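Key idea: predict the complex, not the pieces.
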Amino acid sequence: MSVPKQSLPLPQPTPPVQAPLALAPAPAAPAAARELWAGLHLPGIEGSGSLEELARALLHFSPRVSLEPPDGLVLEVRGSLPLFAGLSGMRAALVAACTQLRLRPRLAIAPTPLAALIAARAGLEVAITEAAQLTGTLAPLSLSVLRWPPPLPERLRRIGVRTLGALLRLPRAGFARRFGVAELATLDRLVGRAPELRTAYVPHLRYRRRHELSCEVDSHAWLLNELGGLLAGLEHFLTGRQLGVMTLECRLHHRNCPPSRCVLNLASPSAQAAHLAALFAEQFARLALPGPVRALELRARALLPRVARARTLWQPGEHGGDGAGEAHLLIERLRARLGAEAIHGLTLRDAHRPEGSWTATEPPPPAPRTVPAPAGAPGVQRPLWLLPVPQPLPVQGGLPQRGGGLQLLGEPERIESGWWDQRPVARDYYAARDVHGVRLWVFRERHPPHGWFLHGFFG
Amino acid sequence: MDDPRIARLLEHPALWRGRSAARLPTLPSGFAALDAALPGGGWPRHGLIEILIPRFGSGELTLLLPTLAALSRGAQARWCVWVSPPYLPFAPALVAGGVVLGRVAVVGGEKPLWAFEQVLGSGACDAALAWARSPKARDVRRLQLAAERGRTLGVLFRPQRAARAASPAALRLVVSATGATLRVQLIKGRGARGAVELALP
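Result:
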C-alpha cells in the first residue's frame, strides 16, 4: 500500500481500459494472419540431440523450423501446403516423419506459433486455419499450458481465472499493471495481435570440397599451388559466415592406394587462406607420398564462430603491446613442423620429491595476466636445471668426484618422501662445487650402499 | 674540451657525437656492476646476444634470471621461451627466482635453430633462450635479424671456443665461474670492453 504510484509498470502504449484482451482492435493487416504454424509437442523426448535431429528431418517440410526446448517444435507450413495435398496430407506427412524417428508427437495447426504449440501441449489435435476461430478453440484450455512460472497461475486462480478464455477476457491495462507487461505481450502473440519473431533452426554446417587435378602430380610445390585455390574457396565460405576452423583435414587421393591424410590442428579458429597454406606447406614437407596425387579434398567438420579481435596500435613488445595473436600463430607453426609435443608449458605440483614437483602443461595462454603471482619462498635453494635421471658419481675417500673432489657447500637438506608408493626417496641433498667452479646439486642416499648422485646444475 | 670554440661547434645540430648514437632501449640485468659495464646500462631490449661458456652450468643462467623474472612480471608480459634446453628447466627454482611460470614455454624437437628463428621472429616472446653447439655465422645472422623483427631478446648459449670466430650478434660475453664469483668478460658490444667480477647471490 505504501508503494508510490510512479513505480508501477505502465503498459506502453496505454490501450483502452475497457477493451478485453481478445477483442482489442487488431492491426489493419496482421502479417501473422497469413501464416500457418504446425506445433509439435513431444512428451518424453530426451536431450536436445533428438529434438535437433527431428528439426533436421522437418526442414524437409519448411525452411522455417524453430525449436522450443525441451519438448516442443514449431514450423511454418502455409507455403508448403500445396506440395503435400493440403492440411490433411501435411499432417499425415509430419506424423510419418516423426514416426520414422520413433517419436509420437501431438500435432496442432494454428495461425500463430504459440497457439499451435499450446494446443499441441494440451493434446488438442486441431487445425485452426482462421484467426477468428482461434480464441474460441483455445478458450477451454487450462492455464498450465502457458507454462508460466508458479506464482502467476496461482494468483490468477485466486481471482477466478482458470481457463484461457477467462484470461483473455481480462481488461488489458489492469492485466498489464497486475501481472506484467511481458505476460501481456505473450498473450498478444498468442492471439496474433503482435507478430512473433522466432529464431529459425540452422543445421550444423560442415565443409567438404574436392578438386580433381588435371594430371597426376607428385611435386609438393605444385600440390601447394593447387591447394591454394581450394583454400581460397574455404576462406570465402568461412568469412561470409563469420566462421573459422580449428581442425582441417586435407586428403590427397592416389590411384591405387588409400588417400594420404594431412590434419591441421589450430590453436584458435582461423579462416585465412595464406596462414593455412603456410601450415600445410610445413605438413607437406614431412609427408611421404606413396604415389602421384589425382585429387585434393578439404574437409572441415567443426566450424566455429570466429570473433574478430581488436588489434592494438602498437607492435608486440612496443610500449607494452602483448603478443596474444602471435602466440597462437607460433604454436601452430611449431606444431605443424615438429609435432604436437613440440611446445609445452611448465607448472608446479605439490610434491617433495624433486622429480614430481613440476609437470608439463599446455602452452600458457597468451592473454595478459591481471595480477602477478607472488614470488616463491626464498631460503630453499633449488637448481635451475634438473637431470631427468640422477647420475651416479664416483666416490673417493667418502667424497663424490667429478673430474676431481667436489667441495660441499653449506648444510644438507633432507628429502624423505614417497614411502606410500613404489618410489620412496630418502636423500640428503647438498650444494657442491666442482674443480671448475660449476655449482652442482648432489645427494647421498640415506640407505646402504649410500651412493652419491648428481641431480642438478645451479646453472 | 673546455675550449669555447669547440663547445660552440658541438651545439651545431648537424654535428652528432658517437657516444650518443647507440641509444638503444635496455633492460637492467639485476647486477649493478654488470649494468655499468654493459653498453646502454643493461641487456639490449631486442636483438641477439651470445653467452659463451667454458662448460655447462658456469652460472650463465643465474646471470640472466633477474632479467627473466622482471620480464615475466610485466603487466603486458609476453612469453619467455626455452628452445631445446639440454636438461629440464626446474620449475620450483624458476618460481623461487621470481619467474612467473605462466609466461614460460619450452620448445623441443629436432630443429633447434629453425625453431629458435621462428620463436624470435614471431613477436610472441619477450625473451628466448637457445643452446646451440656450432651454428654457422650465416645462421646467427638470421637469428639476429629475426630477433629485431620480433622485438625479442634472444640469448644464444655457445661453447667458449666459439669466441675466436666472428659473430654478427650485437653483444658477446664469456661467463666463467671462479670460486664463489662469476667472471663476465665482454668481447663484443657497442662501445663495451673489459671484464667484471660478480658475487653470486
